[in-house]
């Protein structure tokens, strides 16, 4: 299926807020922090119409403690080779993916990097526009979401580095 980038939807923050409320109620103390991440969390940034949420937990073990709760909410676990986080998807009634849930350990590098990237995009309109241009250029070239994500990796990595470490993404 082709990757579709759509114009910013002002409903994305409300979709996040609604889902975050469900997650908070279901996870209780298991969730240390729940954040809207990814492109849908950045005002005016075009994105895939999939809301990304990051849930920080104290520890990954045992995963069943939160996985069972998430599955009852309709999430499905998607195994990910990266050990730094656990990935879950959420489908709507038609089977279209409408949500990504990233579970990471509180205070981890994964948590810090994703929040830092979101905050850089929110605070730097030029970087935000560069990222949107990159996404629009790459989307028609890929049908595999992981390959598309990998293609954005260099830009994202450069944007996540502290300001003194590089001149920014090229």
Characterization of this structure:
- This is GrpB family protein.
- It comes from Candidatus Nephthysia bennettiae.
- It holds the Pfam family GrpB.
- By secondary structure, this protein is an alpha+beta fold.
- It has helices at 12-27, 64-72, 109-123, 125-138, 145-151, 153-160, and strands spanning 31-37, 51-57, 75-78, 85-91, 97-105.
- It has a 5-stranded mixed beta sheet with strand order 1-2-5-4-3, sandwiched between helices.
- α3 (109-123) crosses α4.
Instruction: Please outline the major beta sheet.
Output: 5 strands, mixed
Low-confidence parts: none
CATH fold annotation: Beta Polymerase, domain 2
Assign the CATH architecture: 2-Layer Sandwich
Q: How far from one another are the termini?
A: 29 Å
**CATH superfamily descriptor:** Beta Polymerase, domain 2
Total helical segments: 6
> Could you name the CATH class?
Alpha Beta
Q: Strands across the major sheet, in which order?
A: 1-2-5-4-3
Give the mean pLDDT.
91
The shape, in one word, is globular
- Strand proportion, as a percent range, falls in 15-25%
Please provide the ordered H/E string of secondary-structure elements: HEEHEEEHHHH
Q: Helix/strand-derived class?
A: alpha+beta
Classify the helix fraction into a percent range. 40-55%
Organism: Candidatus Nephthysia bennettiae
Protein name: GrpB family protein
Short description:
The protein is of the alpha+beta class and 170 residues long. It contains six helices and five strands; from the N terminus they run αββαβββαααα. 41% of the residues lie in helices and 20% in strands.
